[in-house]
Amino acid sequence: MNGRRAQAARNDQVILEAARAVFVADPGAPISAVAERAGVGISALYRRYAGKEDLLRRLCSDGLDRYIAEAEAALTGEDDPWDAFAGFVRRVVETDNHSLVINLAGTFAPGEDLHRASAHANELTIRIFERARDAGVLRPGLAVADVAMVFEQIACLRLGDEARTAEIRDRYLTLVLDGLRLPSADPLPGPPPSVEEVNRRWRFE
Amino acid sequence: MNGRRAQAARNDQVILEAARAVFVADPGAPISAVAERAGVGISALYRRYAGKEDLLRRLCSDGLDRYIAEAEAALTGEDDPWDAFAGFVRRVVETDNHSLVINLAGTFAPGEDLHRASAHANELTIRIFERARDAGVLRPGLAVADVAMVFEQIACLRLGDEARTAEIRDRYLTLVLDGLRLPSADPLPGPPPSVEEVNRRWRFE
DNA sequence: CCAGAATGGAATGCTATGTTCCGGTCGTTA
DNA sequence: TAACGACCGGAACATAGCATTCCATTCTGG
Predict the structure, then answer these.
(1) Which parts of this chain does the entry mark as a DNA-binding region (chains A, B) (predicted)?
(2) Does the pTM of the predicted model rise above 0.70?
(3) Which of A49, A147, B42, B49 could share a disulfide with B54, CB 3.0–4.6 Å?
(4) How many Cβ atoms are within 10 Å of A99's Cβ, its own excluded?
(5) Interval B162-201: pLDDT, tens
(6) Which residues of B touch A (CB under 8 A)?
(7) Domains of chain A: which residue ranges?
(8) Using the beta-carbon criterion (under 8 Å), do A152 and B149 form an inter-chain contact?
(9) Which strand C bases fall within 7 angstroms of a protein CB?
């Protein structure tokens, strides 16, 4: 149970969590900040990842997995289409998932697996969105990609420490969700973002 | 009309505009990017500003002046409290003023004049806000500092080129403003940001 | 025609940061 | 129990990016 092997396994976790925390707070943070936060040396990082880009890819991949898990939960665990939609959005915001994925997009070359995961995430989001739309609880004229933009505009809010930031985000997310749940209101101005527009920020190479 | 003197005067403008454009797009941009965009050499910059920080201060100061001008226009030129409020917010977003001020905050030491201007801007914002609130057109529980957070969450939206970005921002600003104009709705959750919280991001030294 | 303002852009010095390397620690196993 | 090696901390190294300086050159106002 104890021993070098066990510490190494624990470090796997500790390092991932530290990396997540650090890069969510500052996407341009140096590798050394991750090591410091994890309470390990830099070697412990390079033993596990080929380089910074490799770590970033891994974080992003994990982030997508969480997103997918939330989306699946929303599709299977909730009956009311609006509650499923709003709950999903709220949970993604709470876990700060979008901060991570957005901030890191473009800083590394995504692999084939990331593409697939991304496509899957997209598809699930569409299902959640269309279920709500078909139920007639959404403001007219909304598109799936609007959801991504909502994530983005909420994720950029920061105020003081983590707890206060969560509070503030909840505040404005409520505001925005109220604005989305208006079947009788006028459509929003301008063409909605297209999925292609939203995806363009990734570095495809 | 022509000549070295005239070119220099023209360059004053060209450089300021280039700097504004460059730093709005990327707050961490190098000085050389400004020179390139302005089509001048680096010397032309250093002849006018003592250093990067000096230029940033100047940009920020100009930004505040524009903000103040918009605020005063809203207070004197418009009768309806809601129209004054919404129009003001819209114009500030359109000129991308907040992007600049927010992005640059904390990267330089503000001088006494900036403090004064900032206080003035704040005061005008309060007047616009309270006029709308007292007219009963605002959602209950809103605070002045909520306006700053709205600027922030809209300013972080980017999509493709400048024109498309403006469209998208207009789209979500409409969404948010709709959410603010709901006198009968429930108050938003959580304590609103305080002015002090919002100002904390400045580097006071 | 010339003193000097204005400029372009290369040269300089520095900082931040990714990556490598080495000496040390301590389970593990023969 | 003795040596082996996985694992680790962190200093050392190499480099890229950037603010700032410097100087040769251009052009003009008197």
Answers:
(1) 30-49
(2) yes
(3) B49
(4) 25
(5) 999 999 999 999 999 999 999 999 999 999 999 999 988 8
(6) 149-150, 152-154, 156-157, 159-160, 164, 167-168, 170-172, 174-176, 178-180, 182, 185, 188-193, 197-198, 200
(7) 1-49, 57-200
(8) no
(9) 4-10, 16-22, 26-28
